[in-house]
Amino acid sequence: MNYRTYGFNGPYEREVFEEWQEKAIDRLSYLLGLDIIKRDAGNLDFKERIESTVTLGNGIKREHTYIDTEEDVTMPLFILHPSTPSKGTFIAYAGHNGAGKESVAGIRDNKSVVEKIEKYNYDYGLKLTEMGYTVICPDPRGFGERRETTTQGDEDDKYLKSSCKELAQSALVLGFTLQGLYVWDTMRLIDYLETREDIDTSKLGVIGFSGGGMQALYATALEKRIKKAIISGYFYGFEESLLELNSNCQCNYVPSVFTSFDMGDIASLIAPRPLAIQSCLSDHLEGRRGMENVMEQMDILSKSYEIYGKTIFHDTPPGDHAFHNDKLEEIMNFFEKESV
Fold first, then answer.
1. Which uninterrupted H or E stretch holds 24?
2. Structure confidence at residue 247 (pLDDT)
3. What pLDDT sits at residue 323?
4. Strand runs (DSSP E) across 186-293, as ranges?
5. What pLDDT is attached to residue 157?
6. Which pLDDT tens digit goes with each residue over 254-279?
7. How far apart are CA 274 and CA 90, in angstroms?
8. pLDDT tens per residue, range 173-203
9. R_g of the chain computed on alpha carbons
């Protein structure tokens, strides 16, 4: 099997590398079916609906808003506004088993959601707002309020879950991918945020854990308006983590992507924008070789950043699959230092 047929293998010179980035972006966009998604998006009116706004006890304002990302397709959002002047804006992506945006926004009305927040430190959107950032917490397709019919309901086995399988299968037979739809939704979300005078997108960042890290990876690789990214629990070699461990969610799988790129190549499309990666030392999703599988991809990525004299912030906390908050302040300082 041919491997990394579109990966970058040098020479490590800026002009050559940037030519590769443009070709690789075109290839990845094609594999995700973005051209088809854009073609069929239809009426591009956002149809903004602000459902409610509440002020929390800590002074944070939480806005519940709906926008359309394509004709008849709605994205629900929580927008968290800090109690002090905003330091900037992040999109915080939800991963699996956390009721979508609810866990990321730190809403503790449901006991099962609270359990997931405490297990995975899932409330990183709220944590960033407490640090002074405006944070947008969208429901990805198939999560939270966007669950398909088979996973709607308030029972724990439905409320926490997602309908990635149904959406991924439907997308494939229509010529595109669920991953492409995630990227498209991010592009449309940024378009919307740019219309709002109260939200600064000039240094827009993204953050995500697990499936949220997957969304952060692909979106930042393909959307240059994203200026920095935190990817947690989703950086490792495809072969061991998504081919050998092939019971992972269908949203991970894009036709031909594993032969065209490895994960270090996709992350290299982010260079030289500031990037932080979090890899837990015993994360079972890293595959049979664990951190060795991670570090091979870090080597691919680091060589790309070295072209610009830049580094990646790589946090390696102990334990299994979870987000870790203890380095967030350090990561923010790194972003300020490394801003391009």
1. helix 14-32
2. 85
3. 98
4. 205-209, 228-232, 275-278
5. 76
6. 999 999 999 999 999 999 999 999 99
7. 14
8. 999 999 999 999 999 999 999 999 999 999 9
9. 19
- What is the arithmetic mean of pLDDT over 310-334? 97
How is residue 140 annotated by DSSP?
P
- Give the list of residues 6+ apart from residue 152 with CB closer than 8 angstroms, or none: 158
Q: pLDDT of 122-166, one tens digit each? A: 999 999 999 999 999 999 999 999 998 888 888 877 888 889 899
Rounded to an integer, the average pLDDT of 301-329 is 97
Q: How far apart are CA 320 and CA 280, in angstroms?
A: 6
Report the pLDDT averaged over residues 287-316: 97
Q: Give the distance from CA 239 to its chain's centroid.
A: 21
Residue carrying the six token digits 């990227």: 183
| Sequence-ordered strand ranges (E) for the chain | 49-55, 61-70, 73-81, 89-93, 134-138, 205-209, 228-232, 275-278, 313-315
Confidence class for position 1, pLDDT limits 50, 70, 90: low
Distance between CA atoms of residues 218 and 257, nearest Å:
12
User: Which two structure tokens, joined as six digits, stand for 175?
Assistant: 């010529």
Pairing verdict, β 228-232 and 61-70: unpaired
Write the Ramachandran bin of 76: left for phi over 0, alpha for psi from -120 to 50, otherwise beta. Answer: beta
Closest residue by Cα to residue 311 from 338, 280, 293 = 338
The count of residues in the chain is 340
CB-CB contact of 7 with 303 (8 Å):
no
Tell me how far apart the alpha carbons of residues 303 and 309 are, in angstroms, rounded to a whole number.
Answer: 10
* Amino acid in position 303: K
* Cβ neighbours for 149, distance < 8 A, ≥ 6 positions apart: none
β-bridge pairing 61-70 and 73-81: antiparallel
How far are the Cα atoms of 18, 37, 199, 307 from residue 73, in angstroms, in the given order?
35, 12, 23, 41
Amino acid at 222: L
Q: What is the pLDDT of residues 61-85, one digit of tens each?
A: 999 999 999 999 999 999 999 999 9
Look-up: residue for tokens 């009116």?
45
Q: How many Å apart are CA 295 and CA 241, to the nearest integer? A: 13
User: Residue type for 281, please?
Assistant: L
What is the 8-class DSSP label of residue 79? E
